[in-house]
Amino acid sequence: MKRFCLALSVVVAALLVLSSARKTTTIFIIGDSTAANKRNYQTYPERGWGMMLQGCFDERILIDNHAVNGQSSKTFIDGGRWQKVLDRIKPGDYVIIQFGHNDEKPNPQRHTDPGTTFDANLRKFVQETRAKGGNPVLMNAVVRRNFYQKVDNSIDDESLRDSKYSDEKVNSDTLVDTHGAYLISPRTVAREQGVPFVDANKITHDIEQSMGIEGSRRLHIWLKPGELASAPDGRKDNTHYCVYGARIVANALADALGEQVPALKKHVRHYDYVVSAKGRGDFLSLQEAVDAVARTGKKARIIVLDGKWEKPKMPKGHKIKIVKCWDASVQ
After folding, report:
1. What is the pLDDT of the chain when averaged over all its residues?
2. For the chain, what is the HEC assignment?
3. Residue 253: predicted pLDDT
4. How many CB atoms lie within 10 A of CB 315?
5. For residues 320 and 289, what is the distance between their CA atoms, to the nearest angstrom?
6. DSSP β-ladder status, 220-223 and 273-275
7. Alpha-carbon gap, residue 22 to 60, rounded angstroms
8. Would you state the pLDDT for residue 22?
9. pTM higher than the cut 0.90
């Protein structure tokens, strides 16, 4: 009997250790299309930075992305999306709050004003997150890729998915701001409420500016006619990110988040390639990632976020380390 009790104790202890090892903290994201998950990821390269954020953390952090195309802080509340997030927040979780792109638009169903209604909505997100024991984090809007002095804020970002490829009008060698006072409100509310603030606009501005006028196109949906079957006429979209751009921005924002929230910093990870069958990484299959490493001839770390995969064909003399999350397997 004693031997049985001892064995049972060992099993229980092992299960407790396993349970502890898998205990997760959730980071919720609320925002617009620049952060959102995309449904047609198998045929179209658009990605939100929030869609890529899971690949920037270890398995103790779970990203639950509720950002949606076309949302403003007003529609996110009015449409009931915020209540759905609020109902899921547990003590110790985090909520990243990022709006602005659509709050700027004149449509009264989406529009808010910085200094009044926009600030009030951000304040509501912060205070209600705290009431649930969560930790709010405010970000301002990511930059639009705009090298033209005359800004037209009436253009709906969502319509850019239907824009055809054409020559670009440029009359500035530095990015021209399109957000104005909407960048100030998140900083103001963060200071007023005593919550972490990540200057996503400056971070993305610096990334785009460093890549230059032509180089920064690589971050967005710039497609020439015939380059992609789902966009036969090409595309010119300076707001939304492609796979490469979303990964670059997600990694930069993860680093900034770690700096502003020390408890998260130890969980930030950077991998050479991320694999996800759900479109949350660089590649949809593990073999594609391995082949990409083989072409470079360099050593690399690949993280597999999800899916079941057969063991890939490895190049000779490879130096590849494959890291798996618990909802992924490689056989």
Report:
1. 92
2. CHHHHHHHHHHHHHHHHHHHHCCCEEEEEECCCCCCCCCCCCCCCCECHHHHHHHHECCCEEEEECCCCCCCHHHHHHCCHHHHHHCCCCCCCEEEEECCCCCCCCCCCCCCCCCCHHHHHHHHHHHHHHHCCCEEEEECCCCCCCCCCCCCCCCCHHHHHHCCCCCCCCCCCCCCCCCHHHHHHHHHHHHHHCCCEECHHHHHHHHHHHHHHHHHHHHEEEECCCCCCCCCCCEEEEEEECHHHHHHHHHHHHHHHHHHCHHHHCCECCCCEEECCCCCCCECCHHHHHHHHHHHCCCEEEEECCEEECCCCCCCCCCEEEEECCCEEEC
3. 98
4. 14
5. 10
6. unpaired
7. 6
8. 59
9. yes
- Using an 8 Å Cβ cutoff, are 93 and 134 in contact? yes
First to last CA, the chain: 40
